[in-house]
Amino acid sequence: MRSELLRFDDWVSPVPAVPREVVSALPDGRDEDRPPLLFVPGLCHGAWAFAEHWVDHTATRGFAAYAVSPRDRCDLRTYAHDVIQVAASLPRQAVLVGHGTGALVVARVLGRYPARAAVMAAPVLDGWGAFGAALRANPFGTLPGRLRLGPRQLFGSGLTDAAAAAYLGRLRAPGIRAQVELVRHRAPPRPVGHPPVLVVGSPDDRVVPRSSLDRTAGRYGTAPLLFPGMGHDLMLDTGWVEPIDAILDWLGKELAA
Amino acid sequence: MLHVTGEVADRHDAVCVIGAGGCGLAAIKNLREHGFAVDCYERETSVGGAWNWRHDRSPMYASTHLISSRPLTEFPDFPMPDTWPDYPHRSQLLSYLERYAAHFGLGEHIWFGTEVVAVTPAGDGHWDVTTRSTGGGTSRILRYASVVVANGHNWVPKTPAFEGLMTYRGMMIHASAYKNPAQLRGRRVLVIGGGNTGCDIAVEAAQQAATVWHSTRRGYWYVPKYIFGRPADQVNALMQRWRLPLRLRQWLVQRTLRLTLGDTTRYGLPAPDHRPFESHPVVNSQLLYYLAHGRITPVPDVVRFDGGAVELADGRTIDPDLVISATGYLPRFEFLAPELLDTDAEGRPDLHLHAFARRHPTLAVVGLLQGDAGLFPLAHWQSVAVARWLRLRVTDPDRAAAVQQHEANRSARSWSRRRVVPSTRHWFEVGSVAYLRVLEDLLRRLEVA
User: Fold this and answer.
1) B443 and A5: CB-CB below 8 Å?
2) CA distance A31 to chain B (A)
3) Tens of pLDDT, residues A69-98
4) Total structural domains in chain A?
5) Which residues on A lie below 8 Å from B383 (Cβ)?
6) Of A121, A216, B112, B305, which one has the greatest count of Cβ atoms within 10 A?
């Protein structure tokens, strides 16, 4: 069993520091008791994907919002390191919101950093399930080393072709090592500090099958909150306001509890 | 919510934490995470303990830097910024602890300016804690279900009773009173003690004072801050990752120091009378440099003081006008009756894993350790173990009893350093990795299924 106490990786070869891209939006009246939200995009996306709608919307609802981008040549270890670094730099315990493979990173981070709460949006935790779904939806784009996601995988039918094409143009394929890691990785650790966890997704997501959503939610003892008709990119698709509002409503209830 | 019964305010299941330094903060955070109400008492007006250099009592000097590197020193769940240097300065350490407290909202559980003057058993595992505001104000008594002591062990200076010290005409201070190099400028300084503090001060004296003598009782292994271009403790961690046996690690350190630093007796230092890892590591890259420049004269033990002169063990006499005694600190638990911690006549408490009181399951001490890496990771996991233990006692007394039985049979040799130079310095010496291995085993047993 892997030791949580003896962290030889970090002691012997610490992750080198790099400048990190973090976008943020702060609410007008600062309510010190409200935790900040930190959005963690998947490896193909960047902070821009959340900056598009969710970051500002979160701030208008009274929560400080931050989004971090994966560094160049990112793998799960360096990404988890960067997320913890950004979270620890925030004034209060953060709520982590991971999307896609970012949810896998959040799941890792939860084993080390006691988040105030965590949200997994369309989580790719179950690597083989996502791999299978991707093969069915887009067999050639799933070949190792030349990962390319198609518009119908990421977005529902509501988004215009032009908008979808513009978003697709901003995607970056992660390195081959990271791609292999996404499919083959050890099970995420048990979260420290007992954070409440919410899983959101869409039954029409062509990246994360419904069965994967259920499994991920089951791992955290909950059931997924579903937004039918939306594609994988919940934060970019036309109905983006519904999931983020649901997340913030849920958070409000958890904080009051 | 206080329920006053007579003059004792009953805090029911709450835990009392004594001290809001790094270890106390970790205790508050981890107890809170395990669902406990916590009252922490801190005599100063802000967090940080020994690192709280803004307060007079702090033993810190202006140039204090870490001697263990950042990754081996930070809390496991709250890393220091990765842009910080390998060996951060004390001001960074204090800001780190302040941010830790703010991040986890610990301040609201701390009563500042409040000293704990007595902790007495109140029956049924509970404790009566007498507190007093430090201004000499009101005192009150509160009852707690458990007490976690995190008062630190670097507060009470230990100064040897040198013969003739009363006749000494120069100035004698303990290292805790040394604050900045201006105190050394132009003086004839004798620094006593070969630990990390003694070496740091000797190096500063070499830069500022007219003459510097450095008195050590024995030869030590002076480990530079970097070996093979990496922080020394990271190299040590690498050897332990490979699970090299102690003897081999000792040989490797000896060879490496011999090859890179050479024979230190050439500088006039005595040869070490022990192997590496048998005394607390002394990490200093500059001592040998100033010895080589002739700015520091190594001398043996002090025998007696006589007016303006100091007589040394080799018969030499020197005439310093400032003596700095970097001879360490003694642990002190003045608010606890000695038998509660099984403290012997010398003042050495006997605790399971240096943490758990053997006969009082609701009394624990956090941070009473000297490891060969940073203290905060050890204190973090200690306080997680304490929190899980206190939780299990409530939720599953049968399993708690089974764990207690198992721990009673755990040999002290598995977690404490076997061979060390006998000295109060090494009362709480542990190998950090070996200690964490044992702690991890305990944590698994305490896990709430």
Assistant:
1) yes
2) 14
3) 999 989 999 999 999 999 999 999 999 999
4) 1
5) none
6) A121
A144 belongs to a structural domain? yes
CATH number for the domain harbouring residue A173: 3.40.50.1820
Residues B269-278: tens digit of each pLDDT: 999 999 999 9
d(CA B146, CA A207): 51
ipTM score of complex: 0.94
CATH number of the structural domain B3-156+329-446: 3.50.50.60
Q: Tokens 């006593």 label which residue?
A: B192
* 8 A C-beta contact, residue A54 and residue A248: no
Fold of B161-325: FAD/NAD(P)-binding domain (3.50.50)
Nearest-CA distance A158 → chain B (Å): 41
As a whole number of angstroms, the distance between CA B332 and CA B158 comes to 11
C-alpha distances (whole Å) from B86 to each of B100, B231, B234 are 19, 7, 10
Q: In the prediction, which pLDDT does A226 show?
A: 97
| Closest CB from B103, B233, B237 relative to A91 | B103
What are the extents of the domains in chain B?
3-156+329-446, 161-325
pLDDT above 80: residue A142: no
Domain that holds residue A241: 8-256
Is there a domain that residue A1 lies in? no
Tell me the residues of B at the A interface, defined by beta carbons under 8 Å apart. 33, 70-72, 76-79, 81-83, 99, 102-105, 233-234, 237-238, 240-241, 373, 377, 381, 433, 436-437, 439-440, 443
Contacts of A12 in chain B (CB under 8 A): 234, 237-238, 241
Q: Which percentage of chain B shows pLDDT scores above 90?
A: 88
- Evaluate whether B3-156+329-446 and B161-325 have a shared fold: yes
